[in-house]
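I'll show a typical protein example:
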Amino acid sequence: MASVSLVFDDKQNAYLRELSEKMNLDFGEFIPHVTLINVTEQDMPRLKAAAAALPVLGRLVLDGVNFLPDKAGNCVWVELRTQKTAWMVEARQQLLAALDGIHPGLDVDGFRPHITLGCVEAGTLDDVNMSAIPGQLPVITEPRAAACYNGVHGKVVEVVE
């Protein structure tokens, strides 16, 4: 699996990994990101070109926490919601057009922008340290679109430069 995702600078990545750890979440090594589109074919030259063609996004606003049970009921994913902006809708339209034929029947509005922080086993939500979340979530500045390799559970494991 591969994707075009928004990725962040080292300082912002460190903040998100530290937040995951402080919240007692189990996500292992991950590269924080917001997925714009997942594709089943790993055509990296095409993905890199599509990512490079996107306009620059000045900031990404985080606006809350989501808890999403997996389909099997084994775990609950913990995510930071990001505002779904006109930029994201336009970027997704552009990606769908540029990657026609290698995405699995996606549409423009069928995505929820978020940053996954980790997961916990079902029934252990009390172990999540919600006090680690600051009263005001930071704004992520200058996220950039990049082609990425995805590992297990859609975790970005490599950003392709």
Remarks:
- The chain has three helices and eight strands.
